[in-house]
Amino acid sequence: MTTDPSTRRSRILDFIRQRIAAGQPPSLAEIAAASGFASRNAAYKHVQALAEAGLIELAPNQKRGIRLPAAARADDLIALPVLGRVAAGAPIGADVPLDQPLWLDGRLFALRPDYLLRVQGDSMIGDGILDGDLVGVHRSAEARDGRIVVARVEGEMTIKRLQRLHGRIRLLPRNPAYAPILVEPGQDFAIEGLYCGLVRRG
Amino acid sequence: MTTDPSTRRSRILDFIRQRIAAGQPPSLAEIAAASGFASRNAAYKHVQALAEAGLIELAPNQKRGIRLPAAARADDLIALPVLGRVAAGAPIGADVPLDQPLWLDGRLFALRPDYLLRVQGDSMIGDGILDGDLVGVHRSAEARDGRIVVARVEGEMTIKRLQRLHGRIRLLPRNPAYAPILVEPGQDFAIEGLYCGLVRRG
DNA sequence: CGTCATGGTGGTCATTTGTACACCGGCTGG
DNA sequence: CCAGCCGGTGTACAAATGACCACCATGACG
């Protein structure tokens, strides 16, 4: 045969997946054009074969009716804005454009985060949270004892482990080089959110 | 003020977003049905208004031609199979995803991972890699000195820092409680892939 | 060689669906 | 009270597109 069919068919699958991820399933005409076919029917037959194999699902008579089977579908995506240094600051853009949200699988987190925050400093290395990590933060003004929280103290944003004792609040770093922060009554203090996971680029 | 746009119109926006995330933009008829309209034209006008406001983008004359603007689009999604406990000797190449794949934003990683691997043990806590973390792994049999790699030694999968010296290879843990692994010549050894980041649920 | 499966071309048909026009009822402002 | 806008209904038209049919080229196989 002139060309390897299996390679071509999987390339068509890749094309379909990419287009769906980009927001819209392709039509047969687009598949044909992308594959170099002159007629939509060639694409049609490939698509039928892919559906037969269970690699895609078809909505009959529906325009752009190609869907991915549930197992391969991204049905729990959440878009998270990436916040840089909150207080005074130069945005941290370099790697991920800050204006664009980052998409993550919602199943990744037990508690659904509202935004991602870039960690500054190494005060939490004892919990494996390093400088530059992106932590998922769920907005909340309440937190139980022992939780890792993002808090604002005197206008400074920090991520620390929360400790409540005798009605007082302490913020514990997880690095022996840092001292716990004791929140004085009347001091500017607020819990901004709860830590719910992190992502790190190697 | 053009009347309160937040109620019905934003519900339509949410509907559109949800459908796109599910794999296929809705048609006007579907929007009308979901919104309780009797005629597609009501949906049409709302969609036009949303496009006017820049909240969505329309591909003219194209069926299901609603797209999200680039800033809100998940255009670099990758589906990663999650490999769990790797039994001794089982090659990673023939991956059987234990679960559904996890979708992550490709921009998260400098090096595109091929799969996620659940970390066992605490031998890398010095690099902030904890037990239970999911590390992104890019398949590769080569690695430069100093990189964190996933390697197979005598059938055991480990994640360690690679050190090359005098033509020999050492695998360095990042935990003083563990000793470096010196790879003997003739020993079963292979680099499975390169560490390229991690995700952790808090 | 004859037959069949595979993979592609071209064209036709019917449905879906974007686009457009006419119109209506309620609300608001002058 | 009337003009005009807004949001919705109904209808109509045409483009996009899925579904299907007839047919051809090529290679594998008995």
Protein chains sharing the most extensive interface: A-B, 51 and 50 residues
CATH homology-level superfamily of the largest domain in chain A: Umud Fragment, subunit A
Strand % of chain A is 25-35%
CATH class of the largest domain in chain A: Mainly Beta
Write structural notes for this entry:
The structure is a homodimer of 202-residue chains. With 202 residues, chain A is an alpha+beta fold. The first copy, chain A, has two domains: 5-69, Arc Repressor Mutant, subunit A (Orthogonal Bundle), CATH 1.10.10; 78-199, Umud Fragment, subunit A (Ribbon), CATH 2.10.109. Chain A contains three helices and twelve strands; from the N terminus they run αααββββββββββββ. In chain A, the strands form three sheets. In chain A, strands 4-6-7-12-8-9-10-11 form an eight-stranded mixed beta sheet, with no helix packed on it. In chain A, strand 9 (156-165) and strand 10 form a beta hairpin. In chain A, helix 2 crosses helix 3 (40-52). The longest helix of chain A has 17 residues, at 5-21. Residues 1-6 and 86-97 of chain A have low confidence and may be disordered. Chains A and B meet through strand 2, strand 5 and strand 12 of A and strand 2, strand 5 and strand 12 of B. Strand 12 (189-201) of chain A pairs antiparallel with strand 12 (189-201) of chain B. The structure holds a DNA duplex (30 and 30 nucleotides).
